[in-house]
Automatic annotation (TrEMBL):
Annotated source species: Agrilus planipennis
Source species, domain of life: Eukaryota
Name by which UniProt lists this protein: Uncharacterized protein LOC108733483 isoform X3
Gene (name only): LOC108733483
Pfam families given in the database record: LLC1
Phylogenetic placement of the source organism: Eukaryota, Metazoa, Ecdysozoa, Arthropoda, Hexapoda
InterPro entries: C20orf85-like
Amino acid sequence: MPKGLSMVAADQLWKAYVVSEDNSKDAWTNKWNWILEEYEKLHQKLDEISKTADYPKPPPDVRSLKPFPNSVNHEYGWVCANPEFRLEKYGPDIMKPMPLPKDN
């Protein structure tokens, strides 16, 4: 409660705040509800298009996580030991900086 306000005044301010929130919600709905309807129409059109579209399918993942380690915490990081699951496919740094010019 702000300093210098009685409990009655603070309660009245809170009620006014709640009423203004409700009024703002109703005003927004009256003014901008049309855009929600437009988005719904757009969503339906995109759903129809995506159902009939022929997207290329990714190749199936043939990697295997087996053998699974037999331990209590399952050896944190054991998957990255397998080269198929490493994030760095091309090495730790594929961009090498140019050498600095030599002094004369």
